[in-house]
Design a protein that fits this description.
It is a single chain. By secondary structure, the protein is α/β, with parallel strands linked by helices. It folds into two domains: about 190 residues, D-Maltodextrin-Binding Protein, domain 2; about 190 residues, 3-Layer(aba) Sandwich (D-Maltodextrin-Binding Protein, domain 2). Helices cover about 40% and strands about 15% of the residues. The chain contains 17 helices and 15 strands. Strands 1, 2, 3, 6, 13, 14 and 15 form a seven-stranded mixed sheet that branches. A four-stranded mixed sheet has the order 8-11-7-12. Helix 2 links the parallel strand 1 and strand 2.
């Protein structure tokens, strides 16, 4: 929770001008933001205008207009892997002076560092997005207690066009959970402990074990359907022919609309008790360094990220709070609570620009690994890492 305090005095001219919020939010999340912004404006006699835009429009608009005074004062709903260009261009304000110790201590370790880039905190985490285990409770009465139990159950439920467990395994966004849980990492670490884009752990011994586990699901256990993309698997689940999947909150509305009774849980731990840990996005509130009202903008950012506001966002729009206190407040929502528990061990997608070079090579490696029972897992991963790092070996993170 933010210990909310006014961080300074706002000039009369800045107050009269008001604040503009640029946001990626739509639908119920946008309605929440409009309501919270109006409440802030009423409390402090300040006009707040909320403008919904696509992420690309926000980034381009800020790049072109911020220094001219033609961009939003506050940016809401920006993922942690999409702001580094704005930081490099000097558009974003340092948020380190506004994030209280109480607020930061209320975040998971990964959420706490999600908006820290080159030693500076550029955003206040607001909500989380990422996959969890989703069960069709008509087909599964009890959640498996371990990963081996999940595989055993999935095998028993797979027959005649019905599948026990499947997910978009050819998509690195989802399959990273296997590589990471077994010990792989996207990037290595430099001497100060920060991420080193020149080194990768995606061909390490742990990553190889994780990729081999995926291959085993496909060819030994016969669990993963061949050549099944996200759309195919989504249809299987909505048709009641897939008992368990690994997917995110974005998939839930269609499941409920189809009348599928679901339960959301963390992926069960590995046989040795290691928690499953995949990717997540952290969406946050960022400030325009060139705002005419930096104090008002900072206070609005803090207003929006209180645990009370995050809980209201969860109730209204189903977004998973970044605040653990807010998550506890909405514990009666089984879906939100399930994703919250699943993302407690998740890794925020690295916010380095170099992350853009990872997706394509890793998707290609997965296509090779899952494309044949004879595929060479270490060789496929090494090829991907060499492409990602420009030829640098990535065997050790």
């Amino acid at each position: 929770m933010v210990a909310w305090v006014l961080v300074g005095l706002t000039s009369a001219s800045a107050a009269a001008q008001g604040l503009t919020v640029w946001t990626t939010y739509q639908g119920a999340a946008l309605a929440w933001l409009q309501s919270e912004s109006a409440s802030y404006g009423q409390a402090f006699d300040k006009q707040v205008k909320v403008v919904p835009l696509k992420l690309g429009q926000i980034k381009q608009g800020a790049m072109v207009g911020a220094k001219k005074g033609q961009a939003g004062d506050v940016f809401v709903g920006i993922p942690q892997d999409q702001f580094s260009g704005l930081a490099d261009a000097g558009i974003l304000a340092d948020m380190g002076n506004y994030a209280t110790d109480r607020y930061l201590s209320d975040l998971s370790d990964q959420a706490r560092i999600a908006f820290r880039y080159q030693g500076t905190l550029y955003g206040l985490p607001l909500s989380l997005q990422g996959p969890a285990l989703i069960l069709n409770t008509r087909l599964v009465s009890k959640s498996p207690a371990s990963y081996p139990d999940l595989v055993k159950l999935a095998r028993s439920l797979t027959s005649d066009g019905t599948y026990g467990f499947a997910f978009d395994a050819g998509n690195f966004y989802y399959s990273y959970a296997w590589l990471h849980s077994y010990g792989g990492t996207v990037f290595g670490r430099n001497a100060s402990g920060g991420p080193d884009a020149g080194r990768s752990g995606l061909a390490s011994a742990g990553a190889v074990r994780g990729a081999q586990a995926l291959k085993t699901l496909r060819f030994t256990d016969g669990v993963l359907p061949p050549h099944a993309d996200y759309a195919t698997l989504r249809k299987l689940f909505l048709d009641g022919k897939l008992a368990m999947t690994y997917d995110g909150p974005w998939a839930v509305p269609a499941m409920l609309a189809a009348g599928i009774p679901i339960e959301v849980r963390p992926m069960p731990p590995l046989a040795d008790g290691t928690p499953f840990s995949g990717f997540m996005n952290v969406e946050g509130v960022l400030l325009n360094r060139f705002s005419a009202d930096p104090v008002g903008a900072a206070n609005l950012a803090k207003w929006l990220t209180t645990s009370e506001a995050q809980a209201a966002l969860a109730r209204k729009a189903g977004l998973i709070p970044a605040s653990t206190e807010a998550l506890a407040k909405v514990g009666d929502d089984a879906v939100v609570a399930g994703f919250g528990a699943a993302l407690a061990h998740a890794q925020a997608i690295p916010n380095l620009p170099a992350m853009g070079t990872v997706w394509g090579p890793m998707d290609q490696a997965l296509a090779t690994i899952l494309g044949s029972a004879d595929s060479d897992v270490p060789a496929a991963l090494q090829q991907a890492v060499q492409t990602i790092t420009g030829g640098t070996s990535g065997g050790t993170p």
